[in-house]
Amino acid sequence: MASYMSQTEPAVIRLGSTALHRLVTAVEAAGFWGSIALPPGYVLALVFDPTPVTIAALIGLNVACLVVGHRHQPRVDTAVLASGIATTGREGSD
């Protein structure tokens, strides 16, 4: 029984570690993209509800998103970029 527990324990730890890593990655990505998506909200807030509290809340939320998402690095699919560059190059030669 003890050997069974010793074999499954690393798998459980690995599973927990993987789940935690994915959660952290998702939260960082949400923060990163949130910091990009929030600034247009400033304009909307100025148009529809220009109270200092609303503006301060948006700025505070944006700063929080920046802090949380600053480590996120969006993946770039080089195959998609290469096909876009190749397509662009061919369009100009027609």
Q: What can you tell me about this protein's structure?
A:
This protein has 94 residues and is an all-alpha fold. It has one domain. 84% of the residues lie in helices and 0% in strands. It has helices spanning 2-37, 39-48, 52-69, 78-92. The N and C termini lie far apart (72 Å). InterPro entries: DUF8028.
Summarize the structure.
This protein has 94 residues and is mainly alpha-helical. The protein has helices at 2-37, 39-48, 52-69, 78-92.
Descriptive key words:
94 residues; mainly alpha; 4 helices
What is the number of strand segments? 0
Stretches with pLDDT under 50, minimum 5 residues: none
Mean pLDDT: 79
Distance separating the two termini: 72 Å
**What would the principal axes of the Cα set say about the shape?**
flat
**Fraction of residues in H or I helices:** over 70%
Largest sheet: none
List the helices and strands and how they pair.
Layout: H1 2-37, H2 39-48, H3 52-69, H4 78-92
Helix pairs in contact: 1-3, 2-3
